[in-house]
Amino acid sequence: MIEYFVPRNFHHTELYIIHYGSQVCSPGHYYGPAVRDHYLLHYILDGQGIFKTAERTYELSTGQAFLIYPDAVTYYEADLDNPWTYCWVGFNGLNAKNLLHMSGFSPSRPILTDDEQRSVGRCMQSLINMHPQGKARDLHLTAKIYQLMAALVENNRQDEVIPAQSRRQQYVEEVVRFIELNFANRITVSDIARNIGLNRSYLNALFKEQMQTNIQDYLLRYRIERALRLMINEALSIGDIARSVGYDDPLLFSKIFKKITGSPPSHYRKQMLSNPPPELPSPADDLRH
């Protein structure tokens, strides 16, 4: 059984399914040597067989899975006496490589052994049993592939050793992502630190070391930068803009806006509409460059 999935909504480029299915293999059934242009994960439901990469041959059985990487030459074959039954999903996307790395996969480590609860296997079978139709078809399948990725990450028992400098960079990136997703809410530096799981003072020191500003000032600047983008929409009042970037009090917003830009919001907006200034760089640019 094979299901082919052509996404109708190309907003799902971060992670998307190409095809999925299952097969009861006959003794000695094989595929390859061949290459794929996408990721292909096989999960063994029953039986056994072999999987070959350029580096080595793996003998696999029930509850294990093997991952084929794009452009890698691979070969797999069902056992002659106890041929495997497997299901598979082919997928790709901008987030695929990172999510697979979080799951413990790599080109030199393409094998997974499921946990005792068979969490990955249950997700795979749930996926292949789906036959969604209608306008929400791509959403249902996208949800399933993310559920599978979550199961793979949870199943990863390997503790990755992250260099101290990389870990500090990771914490700073988490702060930036948290602010980008939550700037419109009433968040504080303590909220950010609690979400990341670090002491507020320590996290602030790490952030300042890499970004040359503290978290509070970064949050203020980010909110004002977002407010500037909304200024061009004349249907929005200054109060609307203030609330949209996390300020319930328009007076407080105006005070902070003037402190950062040098002008009150209403005056700045008049100047912007009559003579649009160059776009201010996003504060996140400091991290990305």
Report on the structure:
The chain is α+β, with helices and mostly antiparallel strands. 43% of the residues lie in helices and 19% in strands. The chain is built from 11 helices and 10 strands. The strands form 2 sheets. The protein has a 6-stranded antiparallel sheet, with helices on one face. Helix 2 runs antiparallel to helix 3 and helix 4 packs across helix 6. The chain is elongated and about 80 Å long.
Number of helices: 11
Helix content: 40-55%
State the shape.
elongated
Q: Architecture of the largest domain, according to CATH?
A: Sandwich
Q: Return residue spans where pLDDT drops below 50 for at least 5 consecutive residues.
A: none
State the CATH superfamily name of the largest domain. Answer: Regulatory protein AraC
Rg from alpha-carbon coordinates: 25 Å
SSE arrangement, N to C:
EEEEEEEEEHEHHHHHHHHHH
Give me the secondary-structure category: alpha+beta
CATH class type of the largest domain: Mainly Beta
Question: What are the SSEs and their pairings?
Answer:
Elements: E1 2-4, E2 16-24, E3 30-34, E4 39-46, E5 48-52, E6 57-61, E7 64-68, E8 74-78, E9 85-92, H1 96-102, E10 111-113, H2 119-128, H3 137-155, H4 164-182, H5 189-196, H6 200-211, H7 215-231, H8 238-244, H9 250-261, H10 265-274, H11 285-288
Antiparallel strand pairs: 1-2, 2-9, 3-8, 4-7, 4-9, 5-6, 5-8, 7-10
Helix pairs in contact: 2-3, 4-6
Question: Notable features of this structure?
Answer:
6-stranded antiparallel sheet, Jelly Rolls, alpha+beta, about 20% strand, 2 domains, Arc Repressor Mutant, subunit A, about 290 residues
